[in-house]
Amino acid sequence: MKKTKKKLRIGILFGGRSGEHEVSLLSAASILNAIDRKKYDVVPIGITKQGHWLTSGEAQSLLEGNALATKRLQLSASADLVHESANLTSTLDVVFPVLHGTFGEDGTIQGLFELADLAYVGSGVLGSAAGMDKDVMKKLFSAAGLPQTPYLALSRTQWRTEPKRCTKQIEAALKYPVFVKPANLGSSVGISKVHDRSELAAAMDLAASFDRKLVIEQGVGGPGAKPRELEVSVLGNDSPEASVVGEIVPGAEFYDYNAKYHSDASIPIIPAEISKSESKQIREMAIAAFRACECSGLARVDFLMEPKGKKAGKKPRIYLNEINTMPGFTSISMYPKLWEATGISYKELIDRLIQLAIERHQEKQQTQFTKS
Question: Is 3.30.390.50 the CATH classification of the domain at 150-218?
Fold first, then answer.
């Protein structure tokens, strides 16, 4: 009698306290729908906006947006439920943290998995933290010699106590238009394009409501110009690979939260209509960025290309914008779509990421943590 191979038990973790909670639910629902149930026992694990951990039916209610059930669960959630969820992780082979933004993509949940000695999809503590903090990320890119647009980082305290001084500092270092961003968030939450001084204070206040550190970047192309927004998906651990290059043509002035998730006006172009040399340059830069931040598993790397200049023969410059260590993962998100165009299907991509998580965990077992 042929022995049946034991299925791997995979925990799909979603929700969370981040401003990207809803995006996480969309990504998780897509993964749960596509994952191969013949190969894996799948355990949905939800985290409410209040930070309560939910399993089984309760997690499903959160995923389906059952507001009444979720509210009831939040009221009844207790330390016992969190304890039960913690016990659950010890029975898992791999956890897939489909958590975007704060507390899920910034190294905090990754630290919990490390303490539990649990294999998990995506970057480790360092890579996740570096990829989340746009200021730290940019410093690492700079150290690796990667081209970026000029930027400035200020604390929320600096802005709130000395707004006039901060304004002078920004205007001395950068030219309008500028983009004001919370340093630690994704999905373009809290980001504003600022055309002149009259728009700066509102943008700084908005970003400051989402994080203690603010990043202000000089726009590419100057006033009235829109740079091309290019993206590359990266997959792997020590030997990462880059997908084809894609382009997003935003339906808004830039690819903001509404343009990403609530509008059909933005147009993805895969592959991007660029030269072979530009594609090669961008893909190499994507892998360099992945390595600079000590990433593993997956990441989407975003670039900005200058609009075509008036001077004939002048090549548009390409700037590295940022890296996203847990990008949107619905079946129509750019990360899986870029891999689909490269030859890896959505279902196969999930398999590859689970295998990379296991490989990374096994490699880490070779490290000795005690003297004896």
Answer: no
